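ASSEMBLY PREDICTION REQUEST
Request ID: AP-0331
Submitted by: J.K., bench scientist
Number of chains: two
Total residues: 581
Priority: normal
Notes: Please return the full assembly, not individual chains.
Input sequences:
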Amino acid sequence: MTGTTKAAIRTKVRRRAGAPFAARRINLLYLPAILLFLGFTIYPLVNGFILSLSNWNGYSPSRSFIGLGNYFRLASDPVFHNTLINTFIYGFGSTILQQVLGLSLALALDRAIRGRNVARAIIYLPVLVSPVVMGTMYYLLFSYDNGGLNDIVVALGGSKIAWLSQAGTSVAIIVLVNSVQFVGISMVIYLAGLQSIPTVYYEASQLDGADAWQQFTQITVPLLRPAFATSVVLNLIGGLKLFDVIQVLTGGGPGYATNSVSTLIGKAYFDNQSAGYASAMGIVLFIIIAVLTLIFNTVLNRRRLEGL
Amino acid sequence: MTRRLGRWAIALGLLIMVVVQLVPFYVALTTSLKPRTDLSSQWLFPTSGLYLANFQTAITDGHILRAIGNSALITVVSTAIICLLGALTAYPLARRTTLGNRVVFSAIVGLIMIPPLSILVPLYSLLNQLGGINTYWGAIVIMVVTQLPLSVFLYAAFMRSLPIAIEEAATVDGASTTQTLFQVVFPMLKPVTATVIILTSVSIWNEYALSVFVLRSPDVRTIAPTISTFVASQGSNLGAAAAAALISVVPVLLAYLVLQRYFIKGMVAGAEK
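STATUS: Completed
Returned structure:
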């Protein structure tokens, strides 16, 4: 009873005093941002859809409406099919690899071992370096002549491997380089997750006779679900829109073999003057990422509730 | 016995991972210190003295220093705008939670999902019409609109955790809305501002996907596009490419050494959304 009256008085005071957030005009504060987004994000997104229904070449003032022509062309374009497969390999491959490596690193570095902080700092360092620069350095390592990796292969008695001029190895290397560079993000998320688990749980279960494996599966894994959800969604988005590393390591080649949708958009627009076609790819990429993000967010959040 | 073995295996695994992360930097260093004619292994440092001409090539032909200057300018200006606009935008969204404002908030956060390349064509032609290609302002507008959603999200989450009573007290004491905002609310935002600065400045400093198309002239180009064009133009001259990459890492490395604690903390805060 007293609670209600107190609340009532509080509201009255707030109204009379006119708390800064009570008046509607406070919304004016977000007007500049909204205008910026409308002009430079929403308008391009809508215009991109409109362009995707045309055969615009990117510079000529004339263009004609061709309906869903570009989308039908995408559906029957073998280059785009291959690109789409690559995009999923980059997205899901990196996500799986980063969870395995990131979680292992977090578990290893969560205990008190010597050099822990130095190890964390070094493993995290590449996250801050531009993927273009990391890619350039890895390019040296994978180069055919005088590359560090081929030096080892030759020393072991093999013959030089053209790492970056075969479709299969190139795609695998791109996944690997992207995952290793950004593994620090997953590691840090899992470390934060591990540190948020109260130690009492482990102590209590130990008294009840649980062994280390039981503690891991019954306490650690369920309570890491929020960290897992965060890390998976971040890595998935990052992998699906991959651009920088591909551009530096292979440029999408050999031929069109290692393109992601992102790199193919740049090529279609600037090299092939198919702006309408490139816009259609952009819309498809946006829909893929939006749908997968929503699906993963829903699935992982529901699981998190069940786990708790 | 198994326990000790396990501990050794973990230590070995960690050591391998640490070495893997350092190898690219090591290989870049040895390569950058050798002339093109030196075909000794990348794993070895040069035996016949250090060769510094690669660094000279990277600076004079690659314009790496100018690129660092351009990146610094674009990063500082964009980050300042993003902090200010982020806090201003987040305030009504955090404090006045009407249905309309909740929709606006979700819409802004949803913008994070848009991949930059998917709006490349319309964004490029829009900037082209406005004369924003190859200009600092064009790049700054791009950085602001792509990074602002995350900053709004972080500011709003932090503001919701602040006690309302302080703002009410300020109003009761006769402070105007502007006074409350600038003298009461903003000073409390220091921790989240540190996070926003770190996250956005790293992203902007490294941005490539859009700047490679929008910044084509060497006068305005930032680091990432400069490195990629330089590497492509050098062909087999890996030494110069390595030197350019290393020079561009120095500012990041210095910032990381000084602010390491904030970096990792900020990344966690930014990731937990």
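REVIEWER COMMENTS: Chain B touches chain A through 93 residues (CB under 8 Å).
SIGN-OFF: pending second reviewer
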